[in-house]
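MetA-pathway of phenol degradation
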Amino acid sequence: MSFNSCFLSRVSALLSCALLCCVTCKAQTPNVVPDANPGRPTVSTPATLTPVGYLQFETGGLYARHSGEFSTRFEVNEVVKLAVHERLQALLLIEPVVKSTKSSSDSAKPGEVFVGAQGVLMKGAESRPTLSASYIYRTHASPAPELDYGTYRQGFMLLLSGDVKGFHADLNGMLNEQISDETGARRGQFGQSLAVSHPVGRFIVSGELWHFTQPLVKGNAVGNLWSAAYPVRKNLVVDAAYEHGLTSTSTRWQTTLGISYLLPKQLLPWKHRG
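Structure:
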């Protein structure tokens, strides 16, 4: 069995187990299920964690056109989150498949895999925002072409989230280590993103502006994103987004669709002790 087939088989097994868990947990009483805390579809990630002890899956598809490395690109992505403490959350990020075209050729490759953790440095309360930090490490690199902000071997992020007069804001600052495939040179990448959201009926509408340096090509990727999310249930949220690149080295446009699902059964018993 080839590496690609083996990799995809393992990912498929993981997602099948997740689906089995969803079916098994379906009978849980709805009124005791906490709210999901989606981190998608924006580039910005919330500083707040998912409910402690509950497994959350964020599944989506992304389609992009017109970038330096590809003509079109489609990926399936999965983020799995599990808060093991009210101040600590484990992360797993997977791209099971990336399909891209450039000129007259096309290819399908397994994407990258990352693991990491996010910890709360300062808990929010009323008007005080939540401050967190996260660390992500790549465990599998992919030969598939990347989006405008590229990929990284490891990344550190500071996250700030808060509410002001009915609006919610997520502000992120990022520092990543990028490595050139040709020379092996290591470069630091800096990024910033700000997403602001507001409820409109039952929908949550968000607008976002983000920026990443591109140290390997000496450029800057800048884009804006507009999205809408709809909570079907407390623990199930569907979303859609449109993103437009604003510089010559940015991907021209991207669209995403996805869901965030919090398993209704607590996997790790946890009692808050104050």
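The two ends are 52 Å apart (CA to CA).
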